[in-house]
Write a structure and sequence with these properties.
Shape: rod-shaped
Radius of gyration: 17 Å
Helix content: over 70%
Structural class: mainly alpha
Length: about 45
């Protein structure tokens, strides 16, 4: 388990960015963030 973390292989690095991006997209699209964005647009 320590080997993959210490050795940043291109495959792991390529697989990690998409996963984080997907999670961030889902979090941004959450209903809690939508009202905040709407309030900002209203202001």
């Amino acid at each position: 388990m320590l080997r993959p973390y210490i050795l940043p292989t291109p495959a792991l690095l390529r697989q990690k960015p998409p996963a984080t991006k997907v999670q961030k997209a889902t979090k941004k699209r959450s209903p809690s963030s939508h009202p905040k964005r709407r309030s900002r647009l209203a202001f």
